[in-house]
Design goal:
203 residues; 6-stranded parallel beta sheet; 6 strands; 16% strand; globular
Length: 203
Amino acid sequence: MVQLGKIQKPDAAEFAGKRKLYCIANIYSFEDASDDFNNLIEHYWYEVIQHIEKIEVAGKIEKIFCEMIYQHGDEALSVLSKIDRHLSIIIEKKMKEGAALLPLESKEILGPYTDWGSCLSVVFTNEVFNKVLEFYKEYSEKRLQHFLDIIEKNLSEAESGLLIMKDEERVELEFPKDIEVFLITPPSYDDIMTWLRKTHAET
């Protein structure tokens, strides 16, 4: 696994003929976020674009795998623009360059997964919480396995793909051994994590 914390060009020859997956942590802003945090988010996505341009020397992105959508084509871009404009801008740019957008989600899995997750935030008793947690974990495992199936099925030999999903969920995926995984982690990613830890400690 290759981790890119600084903007460096990988040695293209080293990865020639291999399946490659460039992983980006999907980070959202939130309602009533401070200007400081929104500025960090803006800078993060700006740096992500820079890193993508550098890393593509190892292989031009041909497939885009994105969480939180099960729609295709223009409908998928419309949904993404409502979720996060930074994300939709990057994906639309790569699609215009010839990449195909492949939604990671299954509608039949995402719905229950989201609902059970919402339930966890409103229950008050341990007995009910533990029961709901069982259902949530069940659909979480189904969801991540579906992600792996989509990637394995659609990332062909020598192709390069862009994976966009939350980092804490991505670390739970065990990718096939023949896929070279690149983690795109610009300096602003650490700045965001520091801001979140500090804010959480103060609340």
